[in-house]
Amino acid sequence: MNKMKAKHTTAHVLETGLVAEKFAKDLLKKRTLKHAAVIGLTGDLGAGKTTFVKAFARGLGIKETVVSPTFVLERVYKLPKTSPFSHLVHIDAYRLKGAGELLGLGWDALIANPKNLIMIEWADNVAPILPQKTIHLFFSHKGGDKRNIEIKIQK
Model's pTM, two decimal places? Predict the structure, then answer.
């Protein structure tokens, strides 16, 4: 099994946004899955996960304001017709007590639809249910506004 890694250090929220937008555009070019694409984000509170998702959504062409689904668990955004995906599904698993609770959100249907692009914050809370080809992003604080973002892609 081949893995691809990329590491980024950002010194400002705008730099984090640029990394996210580029990642979104690169992902759209490489679309080859027969099921939903899943991106799992892991990191401490305030490490930049939601900031990354917001900029990622801009990179996909989403015009509406993307907000954290912390209290509703899931938000769905329609993607432009030019995208190989039809929806960005943004899930916040912070309040979930395990992978089984994700099933209550209709996980099986979400993951089966190859037109869905799913981003899960706090992916470590639901790790056992994530597909093998999940793209993992790890966020960490490095003091002040500085962040490390590590992207791991299974090939």
Answer: 0.89
Environment class of residue 82 by beta-carbon count within 10 Å: exposed (0-12), middle (13-18) or buried (19+)?
A: exposed
pLDDT in tens, 13-41: 889 989 998 888 887 776 666 788 999 99
Q: By the 8 A CB rule, do 95 and 69 touch? A: no
Average pLDDT over residues 57-83: 85
Domains of the chain, residue spans: 3-154
Annotation: CATH topology of 3-154: Rossmann fold (3.40.50)
Nearest-angstrom CA–CA distance, 31 and 53: 18
Judged against a pLDDT cut of 90, whether residue 77 lies above it is answered with: yes
Helix ranges (DSSP H) in the chain: 13-29, 49-60, 100-103, 107-112
Residue 109 pLDDT exceeds 90: yes
